[in-house]
């Protein structure tokens, strides 16, 4: 892997992890993905030459996180078009690879729409070029959105927590690994770090697939910010000790009523935050807001294989169809497991939603619709 460090203008390392890139070697275009199931132990790249490989990478979480899924989905359509595969079949397979993160369908639909429009006018080659251009646009917009969210989020932290010295708790993984830029919630924490206002980032390990311990800590370590990993169950005592000033998380889908689907374990943090009078802030681009989904109860929550809870394995995520019993058992063989990948936090527990187009606070249907209508990409 290349050098992952750059010194930003502020003199603090910028987080630039090449989580995904389009390449055009002589054998044909490919999508190169940093395999997140191997991190932090190994930095291994997967080279996707076809759509089934990319769908597999999405299902096993080699490529993951809402914004990056949108980018990957768009490039997936471009890959199918460039390699002469059945694009409509690819659109279907990619959009259905995971159900909760709305960005996946968003990216796929955008690239597919550009493909179809150009096909009518200029045929297959023009359509393939249009799909790739659209994927690149989705990618570039995500980079810009990340920068804007960091700015809005930093300003909001200043209002909510005057005086700096923030101790921020985060859950799952929301940094450069899930984005073309520096991410969503982690981008805000990084902005606070650069401004000298972050005292500590508390990193929930995020059971069962450890996106916090493996991935957020991997990112945080590269930025020089003070961070501490904790087991998810330790968050309560941390709040009780007065050690958390704000919770910052991302989102996989935000319904029209402001309910937020995010990694399982987010909702308990929102309840804790309310009890302890701590702001609970969600950072997500407007592409994660799904105004078609009227309320939180309508959000489809992905159910993952039980063995992710009952076994430890390397790489961290197995193919959904893989046989049980291949990892290290942490429960008796055959134990039943409940393994929703996400939970839904009602709007009333969310202090603010930070988007690239502005901040929604209090979180209302009207406020959310308004910020989406002012988004450049609405
Ligand atoms: O199952 P994952 O790892 O794809 O879940 C990711 C999350 O829940 C993230 O918190 C969410 O996508 C926000 S990322 C900017």
From TrEMBL:
Record GO biological process: L-methionine salvage from methylthioadenosine
- Can you say what this protein is called? Methylthioribose-1-phosphate isomerase
Family, similarity comment: Belongs to the EIF-2B alpha/beta/delta subunits family. MtnA subfamily.
User: Which reaction does this chain catalyze?
Assistant: 5-(methylsulfanyl)-alpha-D-ribose 1-phosphate = 5-(methylsulfanyl)-D-ribulose 1-phosphate
Gene3D superfamilies from the UniProt entry:
translation initiation factor eif-2b, domain 1 (1.20.120.420), Translation initiation factor eif-2b, domain 2 (3.40.50.10470)
- EC no. given is 5.3.1.23
The coding gene here is: mtnA
Could you tell me which InterPro entries the record lists for this protein? Answer: IF-2B-related, IF-M1Pi, IF_2B-like_C, Initiation_fac_2B_a/b/d, M1Pi_N, NagB/RpiA_transferase-like
According to its UniProt entry, what is the function of this protein? Catalyzes the interconversion of methylthioribose-1-phosphate (MTR-1-P) into methylthioribulose-1-phosphate (MTRu-1-P).
What Pfam families does the entry give? IF-2B
Site (Transition state stabilizer) found at 172
State the pathway, as annotated in the record. Answer: Amino-acid biosynthesis; L-methionine biosynthesis via salvage pathway; L-methionine from S-methyl-5-thio-alpha-D-ribose 1-phosphate: step 1/6
Residue positions of the active site: 252 (proton donor)
Ligand binding (substrate): 64-66, 98, 211, 262-263
* Keywords attached to this entry: Amino-acid biosynthesis, Isomerase, Methionine biosynthesis
A GO molecular-function term, please? Answer: S-methyl-5-thioribose-1-phosphate isomerase activity
């Amino acid at each position: 892997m290349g050098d992952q460090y750059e010194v930003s203008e502020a003199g603090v390392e910028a987080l630039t992890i090449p989580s995904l890139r389009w390449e055009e070697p002589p054998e044909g275009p490919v999508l190169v993905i940093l395999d997140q199931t191997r991190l932090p132990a190994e930095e291994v790249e997967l080279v996707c030459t076809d759509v089934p490989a990319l769908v597999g990478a999405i299902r096993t979480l080699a490529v993951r996180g809402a914004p990056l899924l949108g980018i990957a989905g768009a490039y997936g359509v471009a890959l199918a078009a460039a390699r002469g595969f059945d694009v409509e079949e690819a659109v279907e397979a990619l959009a259905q690879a995971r159900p909760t993160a709305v960005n996946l369908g968003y990216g796929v639909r955008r690239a597919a729409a550009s493909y179809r429009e150009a096909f009518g006018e200029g045929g297959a080659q023009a359509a393939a070029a249009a799909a790739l251009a659209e994927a690149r646009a989705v990618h570039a917009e995500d980079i810009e959105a990340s920068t804007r969210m960091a700015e809005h989020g930093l300003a909001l932290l200043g209002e909510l927590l005057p005086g700096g010295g923030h101790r921020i708790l985060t859950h799952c993984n929301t940094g450069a690994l899930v984005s073309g830029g520096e991410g969503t919630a982690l981008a805000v924490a990084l902005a606070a770090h650069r401004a000298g206002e972050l005292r500590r980032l508390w990193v929930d390990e995020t059971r069962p697939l450890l996106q916090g311990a493996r991935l957020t800590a991997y990112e945080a370590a590269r930025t020089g910010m003070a961070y501490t990993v904790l087991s998810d169950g330790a968050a309560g005592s941390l709040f009780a000790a007065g050690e958390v000033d704000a919770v910052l998380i991302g989102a996989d889908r935000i319904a029209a009523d402001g309910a937020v689907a995010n990694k399982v374990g987010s909702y308990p943090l929102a309840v804790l935050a309310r009890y302890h009078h701590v702001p609970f802030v969600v950072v997500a681009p407007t592409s994660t807001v799904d105004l078609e989904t009227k309320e939180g109860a309508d959000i489809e929550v992905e159910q993952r294989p039980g063995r992710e809870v009952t076994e430890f394995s390397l790489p961290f995520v197995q193919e959904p169809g893989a046989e049980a019993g291949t990892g290290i058992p942490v429960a008796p063989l055959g134990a039943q497991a409940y393994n929703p990948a996400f939970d839904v936090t009602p709007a009333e527990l969310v202090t603010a939603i930070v988007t690239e187009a502005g901040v929604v606070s209090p979180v209302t249907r009207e406020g959310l619709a308004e910020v989406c209508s002012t988004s450049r990409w609405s």
